[in-house]
Every structure is written in structure tokens, then in C-alpha cells.
Specification:
Length: 227
């Protein structure tokens, strides 16, 4: 793990989509404007109105890796991604602020008509499709249920419909995708939101530059929560 060069601008790692969209107002409250948008630019490094800050656009699951290994000083990642990342890469990241953005929940879902509550009797065995393998494994272990994990990265809702899995563990926001695919939510594992993460070496070596940005995120997230 290392800190990026002190001669370079601070780098904030973000993923496209909901986290990016909900981070923009927090940056704007801090007086920082992103000069290009990822949906209208092919660039993966985006400038801001502050010369000392740039954004890099990476896959959501890669944000903690870029920050932990020093390719970015700071980032924003969901609790779900961080939980899976920290199993393989413990330490190396500060997580000072829950920004309360990109809120959703991690749930177990099954096909309509599947008798989940009978299926999860202690000592039973289920096939679970998910990309959140650590969360799924620990959840079912706490219930005394044996599981065969099937790791998928997309189209999770398809797995029960074609007999690949008995249930899925996935993120749910409105539930409309589940409903459209004849799935029902049967159990909530945990609530999810996105958090500010910081490279430990960068905090030590460039803390004076990072602290105003951290304070701005803190202030903006408090305002958003109380709004």
C-alpha cells in the first residue's frame, strides 16, 4: 500500500450510476463542480473546478482496491462492496463517514411460490446465487443452514427461474426488478449505504489537504440526512 505522489492532485475514486449521481450534490455543496460527466465522455479521469482534485471512474467493486493500493487517495463505496473487499484485503482503509447515499438493502429473494421458511429449517441445504459471497455465507451460517454458493455477477434474478439456485442474495431498492421477474423478497440481511474511504498512507502524508474535503463531505452528509 502506498500514497500517490504528493505532487499530483488529490484523486477521488467513484463508480458510474447511482453513487456518482448522488455524490455530485455533496461535491457541489462543497463548492466543487465536476467539469465532465461519465455518460457523455469517454475519459476515465475527470477534472473538477478545483485544480487540486480529480475524479477517476472505475467499477464499483474496484473502488476499494484503487484506494487501498494508492491509485486514489479517497473514494466512495457501498457497504456491500466494502464488506466483501475486506475479507480478502483486511486493513489499509479508513472509513470515517457513512454518507447515507445510494441507500438500499441486501435481501434474500426466491421465486414466487417457493416455500422459503420451510426450506431454511436448521440443517437444511440450499443453493444460493450471489456476488456477495461473504455476506450470504455468514447470514446462512448464523441460521444453521448449509449452502452451495453460486457466484454470479449479473442477471441474478434469472437463477431461480431456470433452476440454477433456490434463492438469491442481492441488493434491492424499489423491488420492481424482483416483481417483474416473479421473485419475492423473503428476508432482509442488512441495510446498505455508501461510505467515504481513505487511503491510510495518504491520510498520514497528505492529511492537511484531505481534511477540508473530508469535513465538506461530513457537513454535506449531515445536511442531507437532516433534510
Amino acid at each position: 500500500m502506498k500514497s500517490p505522489s504528493p505532487n499530483k492532485p488529490l484523486t477521488l475514486a467513484l463508480s458510474k450510476g447511482r453513487i456518482f449521481d448522488e455524490t455530485l450534490p455533496l461535491l457541489e455543496q462543497a463548492g466543487i463542480h465536476v467539469l465532465e460527466r461519465p455518460e457523455s465522455s469517454r475519459k476515465l479521469i475527470l477534472p473538477t473546478s478545483t485544480p487540486d482534485l480529480q475524479l477517476i471512474i472505475v467499477r464499483a467493486s474496484d473502488v476499494p482496491t484503487y484506494v487501498q493500493y494508492g491509485a486514489a487517495h479517497i473514494g466512495i463505496a457501498g457497504k456491500d462492496v466494502l464488506y466483501e473487499h475486506m475479507e480478502q484485503h483486511p486493513g489499509g482503509l479508513y472509513q470515517p463517514i457513512d454518507l447515507n447515499i445510494a441507500r438500499c438493502r441486501m435481501c434474500v429473494a426466491v421465486e414466487e411460490g417457493f416455500d422459503y421458511h420451510t426450506a431454511v429449517k436448521k440443517g437444511s441445504r440450499l443453493r444460493i446465487a450471489t456476488k456477495y459471497t461473504r455476506a450470504a455465507r455468514e447470514h446462512f451460517a448464523s441460521k444453521g443452514v448449509y449452502i452451495d454458493l453460486i457466484k454470479l455477477y449479473g442477471s441474478m434474478e434469472l437463477a431461480p427461474l431456470v433452476g440454477l439456485a433456490d434463492a438469491i442474495v442481492d441488493l434491492v431498492s424499489t423491488g420492481s426488478t424482483l416483481k417483474a421477474n416473479r421473485l419475492v423478497e423473503v428476508e432482509e440481511i442488512t441495510e446498505i449505504s455508501s461510505r467515504l474511504i481513505i487511503n491510510q498512507a495518504a491520510m498520514k502524508n497528505r492529511g492537511a489537504q484531505l481534511q477540508p474535503l473530508i469535513d465538506a463531505f461530513m457537513h454535506a452528509s449531515v445536511e442531507q440526512t437532516s433534510a
